[in-house]
Amino acid sequence: VTFVEPGGGLVQPGGPLRLPCAASGFTFSNLDMSWYRQAPGKERKLVAHINSNGGSTNYDDSVKGRFTISRDNAKNTVYLQMNSLKPEDTAAYYCNAGYWIPIMPSWGQGTQVTVSS
Q: Facing residues of 12 across strands?
């Protein structure tokens, strides 16, 4: 199982950023997927979830209305569109299968998102 999350970087407050996560090693279309983030000195936490067919999504209150999770099952890829970014969104972002509890024991390297002027 592998997750590859490119696409991070330095973004100004209020700006947008789109993160892709390419997954392999399991039947992607059968599983819910989620994005998690870990800020320095804090535990990794759930940011957004999408069910296996993309018909249902859930978000942490801190990103609701600003972030959108989506998936392309033909490409084994899940996306996180982040708008109106705030400095408190600064974190390393990871994807994994599952919802509140990640299913896969292995994680990708993640991608660092830094929101700063």
A: none
